[in-house]
Amino acid sequence: MTKKINIAIDGPAAAGKSTVAKKVAEALHYTYIDTGAMYRAATYLALEHGVDLEDAHAILEWLKTEPITLSYTEKGQHVFIGNKDVTELIRTDDVTNHVSIVATHAIVREEMVKIQRDMIKQSGVVMDGRDIGTHVIPNAEVKIFMMASVEERAQRRYKENVNKGFEANLEVIKEDIRTRDKIDQERKASPLVKAHDAIEMDTTGLSIDDVTEEILAIVSKKVM
Ligand code: CDP
Ligand code: CDP
């Protein structure tokens, strides 16, 4: 049997992390863990209860009262707050526009990382986020830092929204991505930065299949 490893995929918004991570996990029969969904759920929880998003202790209090859990079915990852499935609810613009603020808080991050580390006790995980290779799984056998130009990333998100039938404005999306990247890169707690041993992958102009194949080739060398 081939050895199972852990794969960390980090990078800025709309670089293609989750789409590619899902495909890599499918091909390898690994579990795909979307850590961004947990920060989104924490944001949803705080917004729902009218908590001041700068108040890390108040957010943490709610996280202890109504814990976030993840479960996995054939359809993929489901996110729960208490017993409520919030998988779809955490994708609204309201959550997207506030999530990076919530993710700046060290004590909120610690709570999320505890849950994430519990899930990697067995290998065979593809986890994506911003601090996976640097902090959550520093010993991951494969680390990818995925990027693409901000123009291309905004185009991708724009197309995604149009295909879903949502209203979309390319300039607004570009600005949102820039703002979120800046907050993620400049925060003190586990900022978005390439791990020293991560492979940098510029996916500008590359298709989802191209990037997936490239990662699978890197993995196959590691598990041989
Ligand atoms: O919209 P997109 O898929 O790019 O983002 P996401 O992966 O859902 O993550 C949403 C936000 O959560 C990011 O912009 C970060 O502020 C935060 N995040 C983080 O700080 N650390 C992680 N490991 C994952 C996400
Ligand atoms: O997870 P992250 O925010 O990094 O990005 P994503 O949600 O996986 O990808 C954002 C959008 O770009 C999705 O609609 C993907 O289908 C698309 N995409 C693409 O067109 N080409 C790629 N090489 C990767 C993603």
UniProtKB/TrEMBL annotation:
Its EC number is 2.7.4.25. CDD domains: CMPK. It is found in: Cytoplasm. The keyword S-adenosyl-L-methionine does not apply. GO terms for cellular component: cytosol. Residues 7-220 form the Cytidylate kinase domain. Belongs to the cytidylate kinase family. Type 1 subfamily. This is Cytidylate kinase. The gene is cmk.
